[in-house]
């Protein structure tokens, strides 16, 4: 994660325009632009490193969506659509490990809103339209990191086909009827729009896929177009309604910018095991929450906790805070809600509730917390109420970077 941030910071300084390859579709031909059923429509698929979680995947989506949108804005590649990779067997989705079916993006997002920003289609929209029942991907490019990203002391954008040990480590989101005709491994580093150069290696390809899409970096992190894309990532309306109902009934707020509660994202599990320099102990957490309320929120008694902690650990935190006379809230889905929303939807409901809080404290370098911070920027909270983190019990505690919204 740290390296990624160095790289992103690097990219912010780069304004060089990519010299994109010309598309084969003439902007003046209307059918090219608007008809997804058009015979000549080409599809760009991508996949992400299997162990990566939901919220990094959202960031990878934005890289592809911004790339597509910026290319189309220049009148290029108008015959291309971006295929939304289904959500499938995510590592953190504990209650679904066994029964995991690939879930379309509409389970979690408002897909029409995504479509208002970039030309995206769900995989199941294409699969049902494939007459032969099998979807053939012409070329799967498996992206790989360079062994030394700073070769010769500099980080340069580059790519190179790599013929050694080439294989695709995914399974097309559990879809047995998706097949690859050719697999090409490519060492790649740099901005995502350079993937068009790879695509041009096989100009007659109709379906192209990039595995390990997370290796390609943002073209424009933090720009207006980045934020326009981010704003279009509205959640499924049932998730929004459930979160708003919870806020109204438990946290006494009916506005967008609530004043009645503070929220904490307490990331545990793998973070507790492998990042003890970044996360506090249970008692450290309690002290920091109590301190924040005394410093900034003297009138507030309600605290909402979002967490992936095991129930026993979470209950300890809740009881200790209650002992300090706080009213503590945690969203526990009913059995029906869990079946309906799945683990992924419940995690989003927690994020929405954190997004509306008067004050938010997140977990260092958690992409789950980052997405809440972005949401709060979009809602219009003062950034001081947003970019706060839990510190380790001892040692350095770097302030969170402030990625503020651009309208
Ligand atoms: N319901 C809920 N789930 C969480 C919470 N924090 C983490 N998770 C789960 O754990 C996953 C964490 O992975 P990821 O999205 O990659 O975020 P990161 O690992 O914190 O950067 C989330 O996608 C959720 O499934 C939380 O506060 N509430
Ligand atoms: C699939 O077919 C339906 C009905 O013909 C059409 O409305 C839809 O746009 C098609 N989707 C794609 C991605 O081609
Ligand atoms: C709810 O909020 C209103 C102000 O918006 C306040 O007057 C009222 O006392 C609050 N109720 C509770 C139970 O906290
Ligand atoms: Mg993760």
TrEMBL record:
<keyword id="KW-0732">Signal</keyword>
<keyword id="KW-0119">Carbohydrate metabolism</keyword>
<keyword id="KW-0256">Endoplasmic reticulum</keyword>
<keyword id="KW-0294">Fucose metabolism</keyword>
<dbReference type="InterPro" id="IPR019378">
    <property type="entry name" value="GDP-Fuc_O-FucTrfase"/>
</dbReference>
<comment type="similarity">
    <text>Belongs to the glycosyltransferase 68 family.</text>
</comment>
<feature type="signal peptide">
    <location>
        <begin position="1"/>
        <end position="16"/>
    </location>
</feature>
<keyword id="KW-0808">Transferase</keyword>
<comment type="pathway">
    <text>Protein modification; protein glycosylation.</text>
</comment>
<dbReference type="InterPro" id="IPR045130">
    <property type="entry name" value="OFUT2-like"/>
</dbReference>
<protein>
    <recommendedName>
        <fullName>GDP-fucose protein O-fucosyltransferase 2</fullName>
        <ecNumber>2.4.1.221</ecNumber>
    </recommendedName>
</protein>
<dbReference type="Pfam" id="PF10250">
    <property type="entry name" value="O-FucT"/>
</dbReference>
């Amino acid at each position: 994660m740290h390296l990624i941030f160095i790289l992103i910071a690097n990219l912010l300084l780069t304004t060089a325009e990519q010299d994109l390859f010309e598309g084969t579709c003439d902007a003046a031909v209307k059918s090219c632009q608007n008809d997804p059923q058009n015979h000549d429509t080409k599809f760009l698929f991508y996949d992400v490193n299997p162990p990566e979680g939901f919220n990094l995947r959202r960031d990878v989506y934005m890289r592809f969506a911004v790339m597509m949108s910026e290319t189309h804005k220049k009148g290029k590649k108008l015959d291309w659509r971006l295929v939304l990779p289904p959500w499938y067997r995510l590592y953190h989705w504990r209650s679904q490990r066994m029964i995991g079916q690939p879930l379309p993006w509409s389970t979690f997002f408002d897909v029409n809103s995504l479509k208002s920003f970039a030309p995206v289609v769900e995989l199941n929209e294409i699969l049902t339209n494939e007459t032969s029942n099998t979807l053939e991907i012409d070329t799967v490019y498996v992206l790989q990191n360079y062994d030394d990203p700073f070769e010769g002391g500099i980080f340069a954008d580059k790519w190179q086909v790599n013929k050694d040990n080439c294989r695709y480590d995914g399974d097309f989101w559990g879809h047995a009827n998706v097949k690859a005709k050719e697999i090409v491994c490519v060492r790649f580093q740099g901005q995502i729009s350079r993937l068009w150069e790879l695509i041009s290696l096989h100009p007659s390809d109709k379906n192209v896929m990039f595995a390990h899409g997370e290796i390609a970096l943002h073209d424009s992190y933090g720009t207006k177009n980045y934020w326009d894309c981010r704003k279009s990532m509205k959640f499924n309306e049932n998730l929004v309604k459930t979160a708003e109902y919870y806020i109204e009934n438990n946290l006494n707020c009916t506005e967008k910018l609530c004043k009645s509660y503070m929220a904490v994202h307490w990331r545990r599990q793998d973070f507790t095991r492998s990042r003890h320099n970044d996360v506090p102990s249970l008692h450290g957490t309690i002290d920091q929450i109590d301190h924040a309320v005394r410093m900034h929120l003297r009138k507030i008694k309600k605290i909402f906790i979002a967490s992936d902690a095991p129930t026993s650990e979470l209950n300890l935190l809740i009881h200790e805070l209650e002992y300090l006379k706080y009213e503590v809230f945690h969203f526990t889905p009913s059995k029906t809600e869990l079946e309906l929303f799945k683990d992924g939807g419940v995690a989003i409901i927690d994020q929405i509730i954190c997004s509306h809080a008067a004050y938010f404290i997140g977990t260092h370098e958690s992409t789950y917390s980052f997405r809440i911070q972005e949401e709060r920027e979009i809602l219009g909270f003062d950034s001081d109420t947003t970019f706060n983190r839990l510190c380790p019990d001892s040692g350095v505690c770097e302030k969170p970077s402030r990625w503020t919204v651009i309208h």
